Amino acid sequence: xxxxxxxxxxxxxxxxxxxxxxxxxxxxxxxxxxxxxxxxxxxxxxxxxxxxxxxxxxxxxxxxxxxxxxxxxxxxxxxxxxxxxxxxxxxxxxxxxxxxxxxxxxxxxxxxxxxxxxxxxxxxxxxxxxxxxxxxxxxxxxxxxxxxxxxxxxxxxxxxxxxxxxxxxxxxxxxxxxxxxxxxxxxxxxxxxxxxxxxxxxxxxxxxxxxxxxxxxxxxxxxxxxxxxxxxxxxxxxxxxxxxxxxxxxxxxxxxxxxxxxxxxxxxxxxxxxxxxxxxxxxxxxxxxxxxxxxxxxxxxxxxxxxxxxxxxxxxxxxxxxxxxxxxxxxxxxxxxxxxxxxxxxxxxxxxxxxxxxxxxxxxxxxxxxxxxxxxxxxxxxxxxxxxxxxxxxxxxxxxxxxxxxx
Length: 407
Hints:
It is a single chain. This protein is of the alpha+beta class and 407 residues long. Among the domains are: 3-120, no CATH class; 244-405, Phosphatidylinositol 3-kinase Catalytic Subunit, Chain A, Domain 5, CATH 1.10.1070. Helix content is 35%, strand content 13%. It is built from 14 helices and twelve strands. The chain has helices spanning 3-19, 75-78, 84-93, 102-108, 134-139, 145-153, 199-212, 248-251, 264-274, 278-293, 349-357, 363-384, 388-391, 397-405; strands at 22-26, 31-37, 41-45, 68-70, 118-120, 165-169, 186-191, 220-222, 228-232, 244-247, 305-308, 315-317. The strands form three sheets. Strands 4-3-2-1-5 form a five-stranded antiparallel sheet, covered by helices on one side. It has a four-stranded antiparallel sheet with strand order 6-7-9-8, with helices on both faces. A three-stranded antiparallel sheet has the order 10-11-12. It starts with a helix and ends with a helix.
């Protein structure tokens, strides 16, 4: 698509939304209702969705005949509104068509949206973008490759977070020689960027620790040149059916700008409210302990969530995602993103155990979990010290992480 045709297309799509600011909303099973923007945002369920939990769009928006109205977009819809690098990229691409509005972001995510809720504008029919292969994402060495991916997929990627990242549809390919299955319809691809050197290596290390510690993690990969971190989407079941996902900011009734409010105690209380079982409390404690022990100072409300098939089904803590050791970056605060035990200081193991006990997590389990994570840090450090991608890292990311974690 040429620059002229791109501008014309952006203007056309933007014009459709401005002339008719409403979207048909679907869940993974059927039509749910209409989302419209006039003086306020309004979501109205279709009457046929009554008494059918599978057609409800959110844990916090149960069916009712009266419209939901809000001055801002409802949390479950705005949860993955583009932020940071991706937001700036999209706004720049569409600059001649005017600043894109929130309904436009939702409409453009058609078919690639995060979670089980999808959107369709009555006058907009988007063809699915052509896919990449996992092999391309892993092995491409051209430094301009991520830029080409951004040009191809950014407008269809509805993802929160400051780091450069996009949703990329992938070919269904065969297994690699190491037997890692690549049967995945789409993945999230992140690039380190210049602001935080070695970020892809950092996230690969942290996710490897989570996997070694036997936490629930999606499949993930690091590109050969160590610039791209690739992670499988956990909001799809093995057949590709979308699953419900809501982050803790949404579940707390907060928007993205408020993601640093609250505490890890508030996260555990939300888990108690929606999951109400010991296994869920244990899983969320493990996830919080992981970030604390890895000195992840950006573990805010949007980096924790719940997944479910539909609001009437079993609700579970989501797999681990977005974990990095932020303490190696001097420009970032070396403290927790949220409060724990009324402080932002990284907790000692003893304080982690006390935190766990407040929410019914047995002391024996909490000790075992923290020890398991600590052992995983040591084992993964040893393994990755022999990995060529880490050996050749000019930023010495692994050394910097160990300096912080094992002073």
